[in-house]
Design a protein that fits this description.
two-stranded parallel sheet; 8 strands; 6-stranded mixed beta sheet; alpha/beta
């Protein structure tokens, strides 16, 4: 799902934050639906699954001015550091893929971290992009922004029409705030800041931690461990733990390392919810398509 407010609804900017620069006239990003190959692009969160896929896609399309910063180089929660970065670099567009993410367990047990860190990242990057005169920005949200019991398939009209899923409500609220931040800047200042809501993603550079991962990588790892256990390849199980993180006591019990029974895979939930999955490289292609859309 892609969301965009009407930039023509921009109002008077007096009293609000003022732009310090104007979008690059050389690239013409304000008026063209084709992104010039010399456009300067900042991919926030380039080491994550989505961000790394975006970098690969941009490189494959022939873009060469791709800016990235590791967390050690730029802490997106630090407002001043983010503002300094945008002032120092001449950026034409931003892919905001940086976020604090995790699966059901992480969302439900680290609620304060999820809402605080995501709100800070979004506010800092979007506002700094505006004040620096960045022409286009794409914000990546999440399908968890929609009500828990909204009709299927989900439609944009369902946003804010009911209660959210309690287990990931703080994360969802932060993402909704990011959408509304883009929408508000578009309406008041005439920016072209868009938001896309990916469904459950999978692919290279996914997180396979059994406590913090999303549903598909968690399932894949559990199945892989069960296969290794069935082959009694306990050395491979230990190598898996060294690479992807601890194996919980619940999962380890199902592997039956001492022998005596077939390995058991336990999946969380009732099995009733419907899930939709999308490969991250397809998501990256869609992001570039949305970024190229004209008004």
């Amino acid at each position: 799902t892609a969301m965009q407010s009407d930039p023509s609804a921009a109002g008077n900017a007096s009293g609000g934050p003022q732009k310090k620069n104007t979008p690059s006239a050389a690239t013409g990003l304000k008026d063209s639906s084709v992104l010039p190959k010399n456009a300067s692009m900042y991919v926030a969160g380039h080491r994550g699954m989505v961000g790394s896929s975006l970098v690969r896609r941009l490189q494959a399309e022939g873009y060469t001015r791709i800016l990235t910063r590791a967390h050690a180089e730029l802490d997106l929660i630090d407002q001043r550091a983010v503002e300094d970065f945008f002032r120092a670099e001449k950026i034409d567009m931003v892919f905001l893929a940086a976020a604090r993410v995790g699966g059901i367990h992480a969302n439900n047990t680290r609620r304060a971290e999820f809402i605080y860190q995501n709100l800070m990242i979004q506010c800092n990057v979007i506002h700094a992009a505006f004040t620096a005169g960045v022409a286009r920005l794409l914000f990546l949200g999440s399908s968890c922004i929609y009500p828990r019991d909204c009709p299927q398939p989900m439609r944009e009209e369902s946003l804010l029409s009911g209660s959210l899923e309690p287990t990931n409500e703080p994360y969802a609220l932060a993402k909704i705030a990011g959408i509304k931040l883009c929408e508000s800047y578009n309406r008041q200042y005439g920016t072209r800041y868009r938001a896309v809501m990916p469904t459950n993603l999978y692919g290279p550079n996914d997180n396979f931690d059994l406590e913090n991962s999303h549903v598909l990588p968690a399932m894949l790892r559990k199945f892989h461990l069960a296969k290794l256990a069935a082959q009694e390849d306990w050395e491979a199980v230990r190598r898996d733990e060294d690479r992807f993180g601890p194996i919980s006591p619940e999962v380890r019990a199902g592997l039956a390392e001492k022998g005596g029974r077939v390995p058991l895979v336990r999946l969380w939930g009732s099995g009733a919810p419907r899930r939709e999955f999308l490969h991250v490289d397809d998501m990256a292609a869609a992001c570039l398509f949305v970024m190229q859309l004209s008004d």
